[in-house]
């Protein structure tokens, strides 16, 4: 599951720093950059946004004033050079308050808080999962989500390994990642696994039905959070 991020920031240097941070975290996806709240309102109407990285001193409408106008805002991390608004910002249920210049380690601490929130609101593991359909040899193949063990990227194709068969179809791993429920975790640029199918795991890999699947270095904190360790 990817966290879709919107940067709302009018300082070009700060924008570039946040863009680089997002690019370095595999499960974060940048969906837009806005220099003021008016632009952000339009993006929120058009796109799904999970997390706003919001500056306070914006032109036209200040960050906290903008936040007050939203009925059901995404999760919010404040990014600012002004410490005096920290207490007030938490009245708006922000997740964290980052002071500029922002260090990557501090940014990741805030992202870990987002992950904890997501983990506690995940669907019940007993929830009945639906099916997906893929084109294989010009026919539609039904793939019950509950039967998937893991998915492997193979250049322009993906290999879907199920309990009773293997299916190869022309699809990107990022596209299928966005269709999968929370039981599925991307643990490597080339692998998505079903959390409920894990038999063993450590810091380097997970094992499912005797298959060792590597955990990518950049995914390790995310995987630990998703597995609750």
TrEMBL record:
InterPro entries xrefs: 2C-system_Tx_regulators (IPR051271), CheY-like_superfamily (IPR011006), LytTR_DNA-bd_dom (IPR007492), Sig_transdc_resp-reg_receiver (IPR001789)
The organism's place on the tree of life at top rank: Bacteria
GO MF annotations, alphabetized: DNA binding; phosphorelay response regulator activity
Modified residues (4-aspartylphosphate): 55
Pfam families: LytTR, Response_reg
Response regulatory domain boundaries: 4-115
Alphabetic keyword roster: Phosphoprotein
Annotated signal peptide: none
Residues covered by the HTH LytTR-type domain: 134-229
Stated name of the protein: Response regulator transcription factor
Native source species: Chryseobacterium turcicum
Taxonomic classification: Bacteria, Pseudomonadati, Bacteroidota, Flavobacteriia, Flavobacteriales
């Amino acid at each position: 599951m990817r966290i879709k991020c919107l940067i709302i920031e009018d300082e070009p240097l700060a924008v570039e720093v946040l863009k680089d941070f997002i690019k370095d975290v595999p499960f974060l996806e940048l969906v837009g950059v806005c220099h003021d709240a008016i632009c952000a309102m339009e993006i929120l109407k058009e796109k799904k946004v999970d997390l706003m990285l919001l500056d306070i001193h914006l032109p036209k409408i200040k960050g906290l004033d903008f936040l007050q106008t939203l009925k059901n805002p995404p999760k919010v991390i404040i990014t600012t050079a002004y410490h005096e608004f920290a207490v007030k910002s938490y009245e708006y249920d922000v997740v964290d308050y980052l002071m500029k210049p922002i260090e990557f380690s501090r940014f990741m601490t805030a992202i870990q808080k987002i992950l904890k929130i997501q983990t506690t609101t995940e669907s019940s593991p007993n929830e009945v999962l639906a099916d997906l359909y893929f084109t294989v040899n010009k026919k539609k193949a039904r793939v019950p989500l509950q039967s998937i063990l893991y998915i492997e990227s193979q250049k322009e194709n993906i290999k879907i390994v199920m309990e009773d068969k293997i299916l190869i179809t022309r699809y990107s791993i990022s596209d299928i990642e966005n269709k999968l429920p929370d039981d599925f975790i991307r643990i490597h640029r080339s692998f998505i696994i079903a959390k409920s199918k894990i038999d063993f795991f450590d810091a380097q890999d997970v094992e499912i039905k005797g298959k060792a699947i590597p955990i990518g270095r950049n995914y390790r904190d995310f995987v630990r959070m998703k597995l609750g360790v």
